[in-house]
Each structure stands twice: as structure tokens, then as C-alpha cells.
User: Fold Signal recognition particle receptor FtsY from Desulforudis audaxviator.
Amino acid sequence: FSRLKQSLTKTREVLAGKVEGLVYGRTTVDESLYEELEEILIQADVGVETSLELVARVRERMKAQKLDDPTKLKPILKDELRRIFAGGDETANLRLDGDPTVILVVGVNGTGKTTSIGKLAHLLRRDGKKVLLAAADTFRAAAIDQLEIWAHRAGVELIRHGEGADPAAVVYDAIQAARAREYDVLIIDTAGRLHTRVNLMEELKKVFRVVSRELPGAPQEVLLVLDATTGHNAVNQAKIFGEAVGVTGIVLTKLDGTAKGGIVAAIRNSQKIPVKLVGTGERIEDLSYFHAGEFVDGLLG
Ligand code: GDP
Assistant:
């Protein structure tokens, strides 16, 4: 079992169990089957629109192939679910072709941003990259200290200023350091206070401008961290950040603790932003690249 599949155990127990229950004892396919399937998907946080779209496509295919056997439902559903992630076997990758590569990490406090940065630093370092972190969430000293702990765990350096410093200045310094000391990847932590949304988006845009001015072509990635357990709040956050800073990928955390794994499909289908990384636990190694095939197997068995 891959970590991704394992982290979906709770979702799978609920979702696969319900889909099997739906089919069990039925000998023919009728409209009530599709209606119940819609319900089941919506309850698994696949999202109303995405669930309706999915079921409509399953229904069409069943009809086109003149299938009246309820057991054919699940394989077709899995196939349609995979198609949401385009390319069928899509494996997410990060663009790491910068010199240095800059990865800007954004997201609301509490979603697991700091933890994910630590895990990502570990992952990239394990792949032989020289990684530098920048503590550009300067609003709380505790946030900077927390990032320092993760930098230490991952065995990477951190550029930090004091509490209340200008995030753009931290980023400027980090870029100079990354250049001078020939780092491969600079990962930038940013603030995540959504209740001051306008200020936050302005701050992020300013950081973005400094990065792209100092290093044309950067940032190579803008990763948005979302908490899978928050269901549709996560979809809304994807919308807000996506409009403000042009998110290139999503890091979906806490997939291990939730039965809401269907949220991945809702985000992918409604925002068209790829899920690139998935948090599967609290340890430093609990971060996996997203893989559509494994995800769908993890969801439905
Ligand atoms: P931040 O405020 O967004 O920086 O959030 P933190 O990185 O401090 O994480 C908040 C909490 O979520 C911590 O207790 C983490 O251990 C926990 N957490 C983060 N990612 C995951 C994950 O993938 N799985 C689980 N189970 N917990 C996670």
C-alpha cells in the first residue's frame, strides 16, 4: 500500500462501503441507483456540482453500452473519477528548473503550512537538492520559531528576521543568500491571516513581485496548503488564493485523519488547480506526491 492510499483508509471505508451497499442485492439498474450514488458522493465531499457531473457521465456510459448490471457501476465510476485528473495516470511533479528554484508557499494558518514546508524540505533534500527556507511570515515570532524547528529537523538552513519585519525584505535577503551559496531550491513561508484578507493578498503580491524581479521566471511554484478536514472551506480558499496569486499546485494536508478525501476531486474539478502533494500524517516523511490512479484506488478500493 502506498502512503497516499493508506491515508485514504477512512474515506475508503465509508465511500467504498456505501457504493457496495448500493449495488448489493440489486439485479437491474434504474434511476434510483444514480440518485443514491449522487448522495453518496456528495456526503464524501466530492462536491455537489462534481458529483452531479460524475454521475451524469456514468449514467451516459452505462446507457450507451446498454449495461443493466449494477456491478459495472463501480469500474465506470472509477474511470470517470480518474478522468477528472486529466491524462488518466497523472503523477504530479514540481517544477524545479530554476537557478535557484523558488517555491512560494501560501495558505491559511492552521492548515499545516509550516509542517508541510518542513516535510517538503526533507523530501527535496532526500532527492539531493540543496534547500534554503525563508521565514516570511513575520507576524508572529512563534511562527518563525516553529519554522526554525522544522528547518532543523530537515537539516536545512533558514533565513529569518525579527518579528514584525518586512516579509519582502526577508525574501530579498533569502534570494541573495540562495544565489551566493548556490542553493538549488528556496522555499518561502508566507503569512496566513485570512481575516485581514486584503492586506494578506497585498503582502503576498509584494513578496511575489520581489521574487520575480530578482529572479526572472521565479517563482516556479506557488503552492497553496489546504486542510482536507475543512471540506468546502478548502474549496473556497482555493478560489480566493487562486484569484489573488496564481496558484500552481495544492498541498492537501491531513488526508489521513478524515473521511472527506473526496474533496480532492471537488478542488480539481472546480478550480482546475492540480493537487501536487498530499500530507499523510504528522511525521517528516508523511508527504507524498499525488498520483491520480492511486488516489482513485484509495478512494474506492
Ligand atoms: P500552520 O499554522 O498552517 O503552519 O500549521 P502547522 O504546520 O503548525 O500544523 C497544524 C497542525 O496540523 C499540527 O498539529 C500538525 O502536526 C498538523 N498536521 C499538519 N499536516 C498534517 C497531516 O498531513 N496529517 C496530520 N494528521 N496532521 C497534520
Summary: DSSP finds twelve helices and eight strands in the chain. The radius of gyration is 21 Å. Residues 64 and 200 are 50 Å apart (CA to CA).
